[in-house]
Design brief:
0% strand
């Protein structure tokens, strides 16, 4: 059971860091509601171990690790329930600004990565952690972080190129259809 002082310290930590932590959770899971659930679950798990974090400056890294582990647990559980379909549903972008469209595309493309790859990309590029910090947070060697990041970025490039080819082919078909209708 946590002491009153520890609970107050934890509450202060959450109050000051909640926005940044929610952004981290949002980068790990694409759905905003799932991101909130992920953060809440991680916070509950962290509260029970708060007094064990001797250097509170490492609390963000600890909490991110808890979020990654929780997300992985959820992914494994959900994987058993998923049923493959012949065709993917159309994705929609609520905000029409280019920046939000790019971000939505990137979040959608990130779904092709395995959980370990996604974690490395999020920590290295969004959280801007060093290779060594990422390795420590994920419990792997720096070399594994580098190779995992390399493979993940190559996979993301491949997926983006594939989508671009599909979009260009779709536009060409639309143009041919319009020309045929106009003739």
């Amino acid at each position: 059971m946590a002491h009153a002082g520890e609970v107050l310290g934890f509450e202060e930590y959450v109050r000051t860091r909640q926005d940044a932590l929610l952004r981290s959770a949002r980068r790990l899971v694409p759905d905003p509601v799932d991101a909130q659930d992920l953060l809440q679950t991680a916070l509950v798990r962290t509260l029970g171990r708060w007094d064990g974090i001797a250097d509170k400056r490492l609390a963000d890294a600890y909490l991110r690790r808890v979020m990654i582990n929780t997300r992985t647990e959820w992914w494994r559980a959900r994987k058993l329930e998923e049923v493959p379909t012949e065709q993917l549903p159309e994705s929609s972008i609520d905000d029409s600004t280019e920046q939000h469209a790019d971000r939505a595309l990137l979040m959608d493309v990130m779904k092709v990565l395995a959980p370990k790859q996604r974690s490395v990309v999020v920590l290295r590029h969004w959280e801007q952690m060093s290779t060594e910090e990422t390795a420590a947070a994920l419990g792997m060697s720096a070399g594994t972080v580098k190779s995992t990041l390399h493979r993940a970025l190559a996979r993301l490039r491949e997926e983006l190129e594939k989508r671009e080819r599909e979009e260009l082919a779709g536009r060409a078909l639309e143009r041919e259809e319009r020309e045929r209708c106009a003739a």
